[in-house]
Design goal:
Helix content: over 70%
Number of strands: 0
Number of helices: 13
């Protein structure tokens, strides 16, 4: 997930593209709903947010845009080490928090006992690799996820790679070099769509390089949107932009054409949404909900999945009927949103404030 700092925290003298923050929260909620749905409905054509996982590609595009916006004029002066520290303070606390939650649900899942299978040493290794973002796809029970305790960390792994490359190479690139790289990366994404039938990969050992293809295009494209000033002024507001974003996730799943539909959404539609979102203005009546949406987006993304493993085991063990799932899933989604708010306000933000204070001294 691309989770760049709220720009207002970084550069108070520059305008803050507020609606982009709000859209990030909506995308995070859709990811959570999609993850619940794919466990109980294996047939994607029957999942109403069948392309919900593409929210990650939207995050990556947002990240490229916001990183270029926040650091293009400063990165040369601040240096690599300082940039890495800023990004670690912003991203790493929730990587660790997500790993802790992943460990707790691994140990205390009432529907399975994987600790009996893996033992202390291997469980400790799973936790350390998860907390330090070292890919370790060893669990067949979890489909060889790169990070078995917290599956979404795969996108943070690539986010760090992109951030490092930005601070060492990408910030120096002119638009004349950046544009052909974007085209090349787009071709790579269409190839992944064609060869896999979808853009769902990146999270497992077997689809590792699909993740590289996904971040390569979207991060570079986000940078290009910012550097080309492709900001389209409009009056869509938060509701209009939210509706346009939902269109991507609600696009009907078509088995025959999915290999083409998903790359088209990522390559053309998401950059357009970033351009429109950056040019849209937020009405005062939507300010609070927009801020809340932005605040919970990254915590929700990084704390929800440990509970999805418990849910998956509950589905296998209890075999709940549709009537039961109709209230269990919405109640779970609402609970996870509430948890993400608590984690954001009382854990992540205080930790980041403390680390930022220490860094500035």
């Amino acid at each position: 997930m691309s989770n760049s700092p709220a720009v207002s925290m970084t550069l108070n003298n520059k305008p803050h593209f507020e609606i982009l923050d709000g859209l990030r929260g909506l995308a995070a909620v859709v990811v959570v709903i999609f993850h619940f749905m794919e466990i109980v409905v294996p047939d994607f054509s029957r999942i109403w947010v069948a392309h919900g996982f593409l929210a990650v590609d939207f995050f990556f595009c947002l990240s490229g845009f916001v990183i270029a916006y926040a650091y293009d004029t400063r990165i040369a002066g601040m240096g690599l080490l300082s940039f890495i520290k800023v990004r670690l303070i912003r991203l790493q606390p929730l990587v660790v928090i997500g790993s802790i939650l992943g460990l707790l649900t691994f140990l205390f899942d009432p529907y399975s006992n994987l600790y009996a299978v893996y033992g202390f040493k291997e469980t400790a290794t799973l936790f350390i690799t998860s907390a330090l973002l070292i890919p370790y796809p060893v669990m067949p029970e979890r489909y060889f996820n790169l990070f078995n305790l917290n599956a979404p960390s795969w996108s943070l792994f690539w986010e760090y790679v992109a951030n490092f490359l930005y601070a060492t190479i990408l910030f120096k690139l002119t638009r004349k070099i950046l544009a052909p790289l974007v085209v090349l990366a787009a071709a790579g994404l269409f190839y992944v769509g064609w060869s896999s039938g979808n853009l769902l990969g990146g999270w497992s050992g077997g689809t590792f390089f699909d993740g590289m293809a996904r971040i390569s295009f979207s991060f570079l494209m986000g940078m290009l949107v910012y550097r080309s000033n492709w900001i389209i002024k409009n009056k869509l507001g938060l509701l209009g932009m939210s509706g346009l974003l939902m269109l991507a996730f609600l696009t009907p799943y078509n088995e025959q054409w999915n290999w083409l539909i998903e790359p088209l959404l990522v390559v053309f539609y998401f950059p357009l949404l970033v351009s429109l979102g950056a040019g849209a203005s937020l009405s005062s009546s939507h300010h609070k909900i927009n801020k809340l949406s932005g605040d919970i987006s990254y915590p929700l993304y990084m704390t929800h999945y440990p509970f999805l493993w418990v849910f998956a085991n509950y589905v296998v063990t209890e075999q709940p009927g549709t009537a039961e799932l109709r209230w269990v899933i919405p109640a779970s989604v609402i609970s996870l949103i509430a948890l993400s708010y608590v984690v954001a306000k009382f854990v992540d933000l205080p930790i980041r404030r403390y680390l930022s204070k220490k860094r500035s001294h």
